[in-house]
Amino acid sequence: MYEVFLSKVNEKVSLTKQEEAEIVAQLTHKTLRKRQFFLKEGDICRYIALVEKGALRTYVTDPEGHEHITAFALEGWSLGDLCSFFREEPATQNIEALEDCDLCLISRPAHEALLQTMPKYETYHRILMTEAYIALQKRTRDMISLSPDEQYKAFVSVYPNIVLRVPQHMIASYLGLTPETLSRIKSRISHQR
Amino acid sequence: MYEVFLSKVNEKVSLTKQEEAEIVAQLTHKTLRKRQFFLKEGDICRYIALVEKGALRTYVTDPEGHEHITAFALEGWSLGDLCSFFREEPATQNIEALEDCDLCLISRPAHEALLQTMPKYETYHRILMTEAYIALQKRTRDMISLSPDEQYKAFVSVYPNIVLRVPQHMIASYLGLTPETLSRIKSRISHQR
DNA sequence: TAAATTTCTTGATTCAAATCATTGGAGCCG
DNA sequence: CGGCTCCAATGATTTGAATCAAGAAATTTA
Questions:
Q1: Cα separation, B51 vs B74, whole angstroms
Q2: Shortest CA distance to B99 belongs to which of B169, B162, B7, B8?
Q3: Ramachandran region of residue B48, left (φ > 0), alpha (ψ -120 to 50) or beta?
Q4: First and final CA of chain A: distance in angstroms?
Q5: Which of A92, A134, A146, A147 to mutate to test the interface with B (most CBs of B within 10 A)?
Q6: Do B134 and A83 count as a contact with CB atoms less than 8 A apart?
């Protein structure tokens, strides 16, 4: 049931069977149907999720009411509005299933308990946050320094699997473009070759 | 000498005098004159820095050779190309002093040693990375969902001190705008009131 | 299978920001 | 002090993406 979560942790630190059991004792499971929400803006994010199966999108709503996708998540990726999770503030993000999903959840109390009692769990989480920060920094850099064409090419080469599973207009939203513009970029790129 | 660093750690975890001494033993000090570089693209980032005094900018160079500022740092902020630091890859970022600076440095071996020997240091670093991630996520959200006017207003309200110390064309670069556009946004905003 | 919905493409037009160019002021150094 | 460099403001023009609009293709669902 929780093999995906344990294997993620074991990639960074090696757990004993005993430690694996202690972690599993803190986890819960949840399934979502396509178009169901894991989190809605304004709610408090009570859980961090790990995707065991499926695909989801995170999006925010701007002052004019338009949606902007800020992240996708596939198998093995973590999810949640960390700001809301840690500070118990209303979430500003929405997280919606794009396919039927299996998620593995950990609550804040469970997370804090593991941090307190299991140094390896804290090490895992430190590494996870460091890597997440580095990845987000790369994205920020691309957003500010690459042209739309280059951004799309970079996206395709880093996340080819997302391109296959997610509608194109959502990728446009992620890149900060209209669907029409992304369509034109694609035809421009394919005519170049 | 290293009070700024210790007070940052003590904000998150409380250190004993003994622990403070162990940390200080791993730190070094560096001064930079205005326009000197802490890090240049292509070099390996051997240290993470904490700013004790002064102001710096981080910028990247795009495929056309144009500079884009991705971050500023003032007193109490941490600095470095984490990707390069942890993976010992060539840095993609440049970090330059905008004023004469005092920095407090920690090398990778020193950092790893403290992580191994002092659980509180790992806790501090986990919290630091989590907060940095949350802050960067907010910025990414603003970049994708706010209009240039709104982004500038948000920047001024979050970092009023940076606005006072940094030339306007650098703030334009940080916001992904030309200096001319930012100048026009400012006059537009001031005429609104 | 057929109808309905969603998604993608393409064209015409509008609009906002980039670019190009100039001026005026502020701070710095000989 | 005067000349120099850097910086901000403003105007004219160009450019590229958004918007508006329509239709084709693909997927869902009845």
A1: 6
A2: B162
A3: beta
A4: 46
A5: A134
A6: yes
Q: How confident is the model at residue B192 (pLDDT cuts 50, 70, 90)?
A: low
Query: Where does residue B84 rank: exposed (0-12), middle (13-18), buried (19+ CB within 10 A)?
Result: buried
User: Cβ neighbours of residue B36 under 8 Å, at least 6 residues apart?
Assistant: B96, B97
What's the confidence (pLDDT) of residue B65?
85
State the 10-residue block means of pLDDT for chain A, 193 residues long: 93 96 96 93 97 95 91 95 97 95 97 97 97 95 90 93 94 96 92 67
* Angstrom distance (rounded) from CA A121 to CA A107: 14
List residues with CB under 7 Å of strand C.
A 167-169, 179-180, 182-184, 186-187; B 147-148, 176-178, 180-181
Q: Are B38 and B28 in contact (CB under 8 A)?
A: no
Most distant CA pair in chain B, distance: 58
Is the CA virtual torsion A18, A20, A23, A26 positive or negative? Answer: negative
- Rounded to an integer, what distance in angstroms lies between the CA atom of residue A105 and that of residue A128? 16
Bridge partners for B48 per DSSP: B106
Task: Please name the member of B63, B126, B139 whose beta carbon is closest to the beta carbon of A122.
Answer: B126
Q: In what order do the strands lie in the sheet with A101-107?
A: A27-32, A101-107, A47-53, A78-79
Residue A191 — φ and ψ, nearest 5°?
-75, -20
